[in-house]
Design brief:
This protein is about 45% helix and about 20% strand. It is of the alpha+beta class and about 220 residues long. α6 packs across α8. The strands form two sheets. It has a seven-stranded mixed beta sheet. The protein has eight helices and nine strands. It has one domain: Beta Polymerase, domain 2 (2-Layer Sandwich), CATH 3.30.460.10. The longest helix has about 45 residues.
């Protein structure tokens, strides 16, 4: 009996340890997400001096909504003045956004950014330990960013401390399905492949099926 009670006590201690570790991990994730949002708020506040409609969009809002830490924070703004990339970099630095590098050779950026015809310049920064990518777009953000994202699960944005969701995103999460939303992207596009692998528990469906699911109550 004593040996049985000792084993039971060890098992309880092990289970309690696992639960405590899970709680601690959950707190760490929530704290990191909160930190990333604070960084996003700081960057957006500064960039609103250039474009009141600047937004964080794509992966970060999606991951935050799903309770995950974002790999980086993509910020989009439209600044129509025709100035050279170095001048834009200087402008960002004057705002305290600590530009570390920029992409002058567009062929060197990832495929997702190459395919988006509205992105004109990309600057890499690090704000309080968070990787931030600042992208200038050639048209206002409300017409050239979220609606150009090529897959349903990425169609989300963040502004004024709130996450905005499109019907495509909400349908994806509700039914655990993905679909390609932009015909200009090939099926073997590296970004599409990456997202499908990331959400391997979601079913990839044809566009017409995704649209049909969106129409359901």
């Amino acid at each position: 009996m004593k040996e049985y009670l000792a084993q039971l006590n060890r098992l309880n201690n092990t289970e309690e340890y696992k639960i405590n570790m899970q709680i601690e991990l959950a707190y760490e994730i929530q704290n990191r997400i909160a930190h990333q949002k604070l960084v996003a708020n700081k960057v957006l506040k500064k960039l609103e001096l250039l474009d009141r409609y600047c937004i964080v969009a794509g992966g970060a809002p999606r991951d935050w909504y799903l309770g995950n830490i974002a790999k980086d924070i993509d910020v989009y703004l439209h600044y129509p003045l025709l100035i050279k990339s170095q001048q834009r970099e200087n402008l960002l630095n004057e705002l305290g956004l600590n530009v570390q590098s920029r992409h002058d050779n567009w062929k060197q950026v990832t495929e997702i950014y190459q395919t988006n015809r509205f992105i004109t310049q990309l600057y890499n920064s690090n704000i309080r330990g968070e990787k931030v990518q600042i992208m200038f777009v050639s048209e206002p953000t409300f017409t050239s960013v979220v609606n150009t994202f090529p897959i349903s699960i990425s169609k989300a944005w963040y502004k004024r401390e709130e996450i905005g969701l499109t019907p495509e995103f909400e349908t994806s999460v509700k039914h655990k399905i993905l679909w390609k939303t932009e015909d200009s992207y090939l099926e073997d596009n590296k970004y599409l492949t990456k997202i499908r692998e990331k959400f391997s528990d979601y079913i990839y469906v044809p566009k017409e099926v995704g649209v049909e699911f969106m129409g359901r109550k």
